[in-house]
From TrEMBL:
Residues 549-562 have a biased composition (Low complexity). InterPro entries: Trm82, WD40/YVTN_repeat-like_dom_sf, WD40_repeat_dom_sf. The keyword Zinc-finger does not apply. GO terms for cellular component: cytosol; nucleus; tRNA methyltransferase complex. Its main location: nucleus. The keyword tRNA processing applies. Residues 287-297 have a biased composition (Acidic residues). The lineage of its organism: Eukaryota, Fungi, Dikarya, Basidiomycota, Pucciniomycotina. This is tRNA (guanine-N(7)-)-methyltransferase non-catalytic subunit TRM82. GO terms for biological process: RNA (guanine-N7)-methylation; tRNA modification. Keywords: Nucleus, Repeat, tRNA processing, WD repeat. It comes from Rhodotorula taiwanensis. Residues 266-278 have a biased composition (Basic and acidic residues).
Length: 562
């Protein structure tokens, strides 16, 4: 049975509305919603799209990349294939400069620049040749999660183009572009991963009053950080956690461990050590040893192999600028796995600390999680400052009938009178968009496919303990360290000795065991048969007992060991 795949990406131009559902990209007329073209140039889920208009040739392009690690350039509006290039690693960010340079940031923290037009005679590259052909202009030690271009602004203090990049380890770096090895600034203030960056240019001297350029950063923090440019100084933080956390409906899933004996390396081959161990086991167990092992793994209880949900967390995935001025505009905030959309007017976002704002943030809840949001070029409703198109996760419906009836997208208005969000009624022309925007798939998309940033909130080594994720305090000291085995409580002088971590616990357990052996020999008048280790154990334990008694103000008489 096939189901509708949700629209995971939305892009708009003055003339077009572009959607991506699974690996299929579709274009629609921005005014009438009439379908123009569909194409499936990608072999995997499309993760990022950017539109670019070449003024010299009056040609519009669409640049896309996804799970197949292909960078594809198509002509708009009919999605004619222009070029396809492989990227070294899977992309985590995609931008296009005004000159048509394609900037790709990957999951390994590197940033690459590709020309819009691929070399016509370039042969396909694989392996090490591909790595050598693409040299990054900058790199992060951690996974890169966001990127924003900052064009040169001599009037405000920077002569060169800049690029701001954020990573999983709370860093926001501002580097020169394309000479990324020159680091201009660091924007300090984030405490978690930075998954969204938004550049707000200066309003210029014509505005009254003139405003300075700003950089907004959001992600796993409970606030949006506001940095002043060009100094990258943190000038404010706006809290969003209390507004958005009650509406988060999706959480990351804990990955299923790979069964022993079936681990593979990056090339899909069995590791040499595991292969040698398996061959030795097969020689003893017979030629079908590995088959039996895999069958045993498959026969394990299904509940043990099912993925369980991790605690819900907040991660802002997109910041969208709305309006043309700082007086009547604002920022729309999209949070991964959240069923509500948040609009923060500039008058509220940029209000000085302690000064009450004349307007308040506007929250618009929906019934299903929102996957993407984009501004529409032409507002259709009267009284709208701007209109947005949001896409929903239709796979979260409880029944098949509800899934079929749920519209994949909806229109939202930012009202000009009170700067609030309002859902707009469905237009007659929207029916065509609803019918053709979604691709079909045989299986339900995984949470990691539709909400990839949620998994970044939890490091792979984090272990869930009793009480974690429920608001209870969890003692995480000595997590992951080895603990000693059970020890006789009568022989232990301290109940905490049995839970000492690491080598110390093993040594303590051995000492107590020798002490027990010495006591049994002393009780049977075999003191002369005590080993040196047993004598040392008796002296150590009794010395500790005397020290504890002296501290308590008492005296004891211990055994004398020759």
């Amino acid at each position: 049975m096939s189901i509708r795949h949700p629209v995971q990406l939305l892009v708009s131009t003055p003339e077009l509305l572009i959607t991506a559902s699974d690996s299929r990209i579709s274009t629609f007329d921005a005014i009438t919603n009439a379908p123009i073209s569909h194409a499936s140039h990608h072999t995997g889920l499309v993760r990022f799209m950017c539109a670019y208009s070449d003024a010299a040739t009056a040609t519009n392009y669409l640049i896309s990349t996804g799970e197949d690690k292909q960078l594809i350039v198509s002509k708009l509006p009919h999605l004619e294939h222009v070029s396809s290039r492989g990227v070294p690693k899977r992309a985590n960010a995609l931008e296009v400069t005004e000159a048509g340079e394609i900037i790709v940031g990957d999951k390994f923290g590197d940033v690459y620049v590709f020309p819009l037009e691929a070399p016509a005679d370039a042969p396909p590259l694989t392996g090490d040749d591909e790595k050598d052909a693409h040299q990054p202009i900058l790199g992060h030690v951690s996974m890169l999660t966001s990127m924003a271009l900052l064009p040169a602004d001599p009037a405000n203090g920077w002569e060169h183009d800049w690029i701001a990049t954020g990573d999983r380890d709370e860093h926001v770096r501002i580097s020169r572009f394309p000479a990324g090895h020159i680091i201009e600034k660091y924007a300090w203030g984030s405490k978690s991963l930075v998954s969204s960056l938004l550049y707000l240019p200066s309003t210029g001297p014509s505005a009254r009053p003139a405003t300075s350029p700003l950089l907004l950063a959001a992600g796993g923090d409970p606030t949006i950080q506001i940095f002043s440019l060009p100094t990258a100084e943190l000038i404010g933080q706006f809290p969003i956690a209390e507004l958005m956390l009650p509406h988060i409906a999706v959480s990351a899933q804990r990955p299923v461990p790979i069964p022993a004996g079936r681990r593979k390396d990056k090339r899909g081959e069995r590791k040499a050590g595991a292969k040698d161990a398996d061959s030795a086991a097969v020689s003893e167990a017979g030629p079908d040893g590995e088959v039996e092992m895999e069958a045993e793994a498959e026969a394990a209880p299904s509940g043990a192999r099912q993925m369980s949900d991790l605690p819900k967390g907040l991660v802002a995935t997109k910041l969208v600028e709305v309006g043309t001025t700082r007086e009547n505009g604002g920022v729309v905030v999209l949070v991964s796995g959240c069923t509500a959309l948040l609009f923060i007017p500039y008058a509220c976002l940029l209000a000085p600390a302690g000064v009450p704002s004349p307007v308040t943030p506007s929250l618009l809840p929906f019934s299903h999680p929102i996957l993407d949001v984009v501004g529409l070029p032409v507002p259709a409703a009267a009284g709208s400052l701007s209109e947005l198109l949001v896409s929903f996760d239709v796979t979260r419906a409880s029944t098949a009938a509800e899934m079929d009836a749920l519209p994949p997208v909806a229109r939202v208005s930012v009202r000009s009178d009170d700067l609030s969000l309002a859902a707009l009624p469905t237009l007659t022309t929207d029916a065509v968009l609803f019918e053709t925007a979604c691709a079909t798939t045989a299986t339900q998309p995984a949470v990691s496919s539709l909400y990839p940033l949620l998994s970044l909130l939890h490091h792979p080594g984090d272990a869930m303990e009793d009480g974690e994720g429920t608001g209870e305090k969890v003692d995480k000291r000595n997590r992951g360290k080895k603990r000693a085995g059970p020890v006789d409580s009568d022989a232990a002088t301290d109940s905490s000795d049995a839970r000492r971590p690491g080598k110390r616990a093993a040594g303590r357990a051995e000492t107590l065991q020798r002490y027990e052996d010495a006591k049994r020999k002393l009780a049977t008048e075999l003191a002369a048969a005590l080993t040196e280790g047993e004598k040392a154990a008796v002296q150590e334990v009794e010395s500790e007992a005397q020290s504890d008694a002296a501290a308590a103000g008492a005296t004891i008489e211990g055994a004398v060991v020759a």
